[in-house]
């Protein structure tokens, strides 16, 4: 599990540790870790955007220095690189506020202060602001961020100190100018803003430097990894039968959108339930593609309602809302959903909107959902008393108790018609197999993203191909974790 902590939590842990250490010790730990990563990158051990120099001596390094401790980290790291023979050029955002000790160390090591970044740099350190940044970059910082962009376009690697300046550490929101980094070296803990877009897209590869912070057991945001997901996947035991493995019902498709039913069933068949039951007018299309599907109403352990339902079927969704069976609501099923109806439910509910659907549920515009994914997912979960999987550039899953997971496996190739239908079938199948909504949603998003990588291999991919790649995604997730999955909770009951 990759765990991320917000600014207040990191600051509290920092205070607690600083009280037990000599002055400046934490900054030295941070700077040492940062310089080590930079040296490795200069020697050719990182994203290969320019031919490796193979050594630190003779490298040209620019340092952008803000007025807080983030600038201090960058200056001390610059001093370490200068001592190893790099030419280091620091640009100070505000000469009167640059970290005194860091600046003295840099100058003593042979580094120079310059008016603007010189040309032909190998690497630029973004030490403008870190977790002390508030709101959009002010003009002086924005001007230096633009210099970082220019250097990057000319071939320099940009390394963000703690987080890219302009990214909100707690949310990943970006208001205006921002530094685009190839690598972010973050201290003590991942920050939510490094895992959630748009912030995550500016962070590049994130490297964590341990500085000894003691953090609470429960992170504010987490991202499951192979071993976590493998541990959640339902594996049949010797005594399993198809009913004990769980049956998932799919209420989807219409005359206008029969394909949505086929794709939701395609996802559901690969999600670990023992059987898939389809209800709706696209039964012939579903059977033609998947003869193993059960047709018509009957006992299920979870329902998926909504993909391609079109208009006029809300009464069927409402009946499911009134039942005590776990329920996933997606797409057309989300229209006109009332918070009261959801709050009355006794069984778990999972909503899987994309940004547009989330915007409609919240009565805001789509852009504000895309810009504030974490905040909007939390609002939805709270207002509707349900677990919410907000799809898109970073898929965010949030439960009503405020637990948040973000999916690390997504790819923009998934932005293709019908891939959301596959996801809802898959997540519903995991619900039917007995996973709770938070686990079902985050495991489904993980496998779905992995399947897209398998199927796409850097080329366009269709929703059907994503569904077909799900078994490979399941297998590689289990194999990579070394766990091979483990049996869990078969034999659930429902109506
Ligand atoms: N936590 C830890 O364990 C450790 C933390 N460490 C490091 O300390 C960093 C935090 O340092 P920090 O608290 O000094 O804040 P920092 O990020 O430098 O920003 C403050 C400066 O930015 C300015 N500023 C703010 N907003 C702005 C804007 N929109 N546009 C422009 N300017 C803006 C603000 O100006 P002001 O608002 O005060 O005028 C002030 O000058 C942390 O990220 C990590 O790198 C490590 O050394 C060791 C362990
Ligand atoms: N830019 C993106 N990066 C990663 N994943 C994306 C991106 N855009 C969309 N996706 C994913 O693609 C899927 C699209 O689902 P959805 O919008 O419901 O499409 P449809 O309704 O056509 O099935 C979701 O899993 C979503 O997370
Ligand atoms: K920074």
UniProtKB/TrEMBL annotation:
For this UniProt record, the keywords arranged alphabetically read as follows:
ATP-binding, Isomerase, Lyase, Metal-binding, Multifunctional enzyme, NAD, NADP, Nucleotide-binding, Potassium
Q: Which residues form the YjeF N-terminal domain?
A: 10-219
Catalytic reaction(s) noted: (6S)-NADHX + ADP = AMP + phosphate + NADH + H(+); (6S)-NADPHX + ADP = AMP + phosphate + NADPH + H(+); (6R)-NADHX = (6S)-NADHX; (6R)-NADPHX = (6S)-NADPHX
Q: Which residues form the YjeF C-terminal domain?
A: 225-477
Show the Pfam families listed in the entry. Answer: Carb_kinase, YjeF_N
Summarize where AMP binds, as residue positions: 391-395, 420
Q: What does this protein do?
A: Catalyzes the epimerization of the S- and R-forms of NAD(P)HX, a damaged form of NAD(P)H that is a result of enzymatic or heat-dependent hydration. This is a prerequisite for the S-specific NAD(P)H-hydrate dehydratase to allow the repair of both epimers of NAD(P)HX.
Q: Which family does it belong to?
A: In the C-terminal section; belongs to the NnrD/CARKD family.
Supply the NCBIfam families for this chain: yjeF_cterm
Subunit note? Homotetramer.
Q: Which HAMAP family match?
A: NADHX_dehydratase (MF_01965), NADHX_epimerase (MF_01966)
Q: What is this protein called?
A: Bifunctional NAD(P)H-hydrate repair enzyme
Q: To which species is this protein native?
A: Streptomyces antimicrobicus
Native organism taxonomy: Bacteria, Bacillati, Actinomycetota, Actinomycetes, Kitasatosporales
């Amino acid at each position: 599990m990759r765990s991320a902590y917000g600014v207040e939590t990191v600051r509290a842990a920092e205070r607690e540790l600083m009280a037990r250490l000599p002055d400046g010790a934490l900054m030295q730990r941070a700077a040492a870790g940062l310089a080590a990563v930079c040296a490795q990158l200069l020697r050719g051990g990182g994203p290969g955007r320019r031919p490796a120099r193979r050594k630190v001596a003779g490298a040209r390094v620019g340092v952008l220095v803000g007025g807080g401790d983030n600038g201090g980290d960058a200056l001390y790291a610059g001093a370490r690189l200068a001592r190893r023979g790099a030419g280091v050029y620091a640009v100070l955002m505000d000469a009167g506020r640059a970290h005194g000790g860091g600046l003295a160390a840099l100058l003593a090591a042979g580094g120079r202060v310059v008016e603007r970044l010189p040309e032909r740099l190998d690497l630029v350190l973004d030490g403008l602001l870190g977790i002390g940044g508030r709101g959009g970059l002010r003009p002086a910082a924005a001007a230096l961020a633009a210099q970082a962009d220019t250097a990057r376009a000319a071939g320099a690697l940009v390394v963000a100190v703690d987080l890219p300046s302009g990214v909100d550490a707690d949310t990943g929101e970006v208001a205006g100018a921002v530094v685009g980094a190839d690598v972010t070296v973050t201290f003590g803990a991942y920050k939510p803003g490094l895992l959630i877009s748009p912030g995550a897209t500016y962070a590049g590869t994130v490297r964590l430097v341990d500085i000894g912070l003691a953090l609470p057991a429960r992170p504010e945001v987490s991202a499951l990894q192979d071993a976590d997901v493998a541990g959640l996947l339902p594996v049949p035991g010797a005594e399993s039968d198809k009913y004990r493995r769980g049956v998932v019902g799919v209420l989807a498709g219409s005359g206008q959108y029969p394909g949505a039913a086929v794709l939701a069933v395609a996802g559901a068949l690969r999600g670990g339930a023992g059987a898939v039951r389809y209800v709706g007018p696209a039964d012939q299309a579903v059977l033609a593609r998947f003869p193993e599907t059960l047709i018509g109403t009957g006992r299920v352990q979870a329902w998926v309602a909504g993909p391609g339902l079109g208009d006029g079927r809300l009464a069927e969704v409402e009946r499911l809302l009134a039942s005590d069976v776990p329920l996933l609501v997606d797409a057309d099923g989300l229209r006109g959903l009332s918070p009261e109806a959801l709050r009355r439910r006794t069984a778990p509910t999972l909503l899987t909107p994309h940004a547009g659907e989330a915007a409609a549920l919240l009565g805001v515009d789509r852009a504000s959902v895309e810009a504030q994914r974490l905040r909007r997912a939390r609002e939805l979960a709270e207002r509707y008393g349900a677990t919410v999987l907000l799809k898109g550039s970073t898929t965010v899953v949030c439960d009503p108790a405020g637990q948040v997971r973000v999916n690390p496996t997504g790819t923009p190739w998934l932005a293709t018609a019908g891939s959301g239908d596959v996801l809802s079938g898959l997540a519903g199948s995991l619900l039917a197999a007995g996973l709770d909504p938070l686990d079902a949603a985050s495991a489904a998003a993980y496998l779905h993203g992995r399947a897209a990588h398998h199927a796409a291999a850097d080329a366009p991919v269709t929703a059907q191909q994503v569904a077909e790649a799900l078994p490979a995604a399941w297998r590689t997730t289990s194999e990579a974790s070394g766990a091979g999955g483990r049996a869990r909770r078969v034999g659930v009951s429902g109506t």
